[in-house]
Design the sequence.
């Protein structure tokens, strides 16, 4: 029997065992390893809680990806599994075949279950299948703390029942259980609820956190001490935080935030969506970064020319792969800071988003030579800016030098509009034909989108996909 493609007979055998649950439990010690996942699945779907409880202390794999079996966590199933962990934790001498280290309650692990069910020919992660090397000392001493993985999205409404039950269970077993959360989202949650939940989680496990309070900067400042404990965070998203750092209290709150970001030594991805507190103070955020960023996104907000200058000269952006300034108006700025910025990242930049930036012919013409030297660029988006047909044609010639560029999103040129800003569809169709002819002359296969709307996949009839053959 192939371990990686078990026949349906295994599934039938597992189902047959559960017709007599007591007998199934009594035979667990003698079952082959390959039968455990099918039997566990059958027990889940048949709600055989006693069998689930008995299987956990004998689980022969490093991880039990329970979340991958449930679209929505079921409290009864969770309770049975946690009862099984209690049995495991209480054992002075542990079952020799038990290798369990991680209970994963996230929506992952489908490949693991698909393989053992015979549904798909997937090769699951070796960390899930490989037996853990036998440690004889485990028969004499307690297990190291077991890890329970979850994903958290905290909102104002009360916690789901299964989370409340899980937190109470973990609270009573702090010495034996580590509650880990790699991805965390916090949306408009009260300070009290936030503290109650976060004190349960091993914060140095968090790798990605999104804070979307839609409240004042002071709320973010109150969260900052928790953020400082998330020492392994790689991605930080701040969404719609209101405030003005020119006001004394907001200034102190910003200092509180940046003092904690200083502790994030692995931060590589920083995204700030509509951060009204940032205008004139971007340098404070940049100074608190400990390592160079891979991606920075500052969108839908006001920045000063000084902010953009600080960004272009910051040593922490010298190896950017992604730059997103969508919705940051650059109309009244000198093109020099953006040109300097692109020069610094020309060897690493892969994605550039300048949608709705108020970019004019003057800006675009100034940084086109630098843009053509961004040799790694794969995605370029400049929708929502008003540029002329002549400059757009020049842009196509400059970007033709970029071999990896695979997605190009450009605005309809200003000749497509009347003096009152009304779009002329016939003129737009004519311009698209001219652009196709330019692409044909360039003799390099490529596809671009030219549209007056921001999204090239919006379904709008005005949204146009161009290539030499269309």
Sequence:
């Amino acid at each position: 029997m192939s371990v990686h493609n078990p026949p349906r007979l295994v599934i039938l055998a597992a189902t047959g065992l559960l017709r007599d649950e007591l007998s199934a439990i009594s035979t667990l010690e003698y079952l082959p390893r390959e039968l455990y996942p099918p039997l566990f699945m059958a027990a889940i779907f048949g709600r055989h809680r006693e069998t689930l409880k008995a299987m956990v202390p004998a689980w022969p794999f490093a991880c039990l990806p329970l979340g991958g079996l449930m679209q929505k966590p079921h409290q009864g199933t969770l309770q049975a599994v946690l009862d099984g962990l209690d049995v495991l934790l209480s054992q002075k001498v542990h079952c020799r075949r038990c290798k369990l280290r991680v209970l994963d309650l996230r929506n992952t692990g489908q490949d693991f279950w698909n393989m053992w069910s015979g549904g798909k020919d997937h090769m699951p992660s070796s960390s899930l299948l490989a037996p853990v090397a036998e440690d004889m000392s485990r028969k004499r001493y307690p297990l190291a703390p077991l890890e329970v993985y979850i994903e958290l999205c905290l909102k104002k409404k009360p916690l789901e029942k299964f989370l409340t039950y899980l937190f109470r269970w973990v609270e009573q077993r702090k010495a034996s259980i580590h509650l880990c959360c790699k991805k965390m989202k916090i949306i408009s949650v009260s300070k009290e609820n936030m503290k109650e939940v976060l004190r349960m989680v091993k914060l140095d496990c968090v790798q990605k956190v999104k804070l979307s309070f839609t409240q004042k900067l002071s709320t973010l400042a109150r969260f900052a001490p928790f953020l400082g404990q998330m020492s392994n965070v790689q991605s930080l998203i701040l969404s719609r935080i209101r405030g003005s750092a020119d006001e004394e209290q907001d200034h102190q709150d910003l200092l509180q935030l940046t003092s904690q970001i200083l502790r994030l030594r692995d931060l590589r991805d920083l995204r700030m969506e509509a951060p009204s507190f940032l205008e004139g103070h971007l340098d404070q955020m940049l100074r608190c970064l400990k390592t160079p960023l891979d991606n920075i996104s500052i969108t839908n907000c006001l920045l000063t020319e000084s902010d953009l200058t600080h960004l272009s000269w910051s040593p922490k952006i010298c190896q950017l792969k992604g730059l997103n300034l969508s919705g940051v108006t650059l109309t009244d700025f000198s093109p020099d800071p953006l040109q300097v910025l692109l020069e610094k990242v020309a060897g690493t930049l892969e994605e550039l988003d300048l949608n709705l930036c108020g970019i004019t012919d003057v800006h675009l013409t100034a940084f086109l030579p630098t843009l053509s030297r961004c040799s790694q660029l794969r995605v370029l988006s400049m929708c929502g800016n008003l540029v002329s047909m002549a400059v757009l044609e020049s842009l196509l010639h400059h970007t033709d030098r970029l071999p990896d560029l695979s997605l190009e999103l450009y605005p309809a040129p200003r000749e497509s509009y009347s003096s009152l800003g009304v779009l002329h569809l016939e003129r737009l169709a004519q311009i698209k034909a001219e652009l196709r002819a330019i692409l044909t002359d360039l003799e390099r296969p490529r596809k671009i989108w030219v549209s007056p709307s921001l999204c090239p996949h919006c379904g709008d009839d005005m949204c146009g996909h161009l290539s030499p053959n269309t």
About this structure: The longest strand covers residues 177-186. The longest helix spans residues 425-442. The two ends are 52 Å apart (CA to CA).
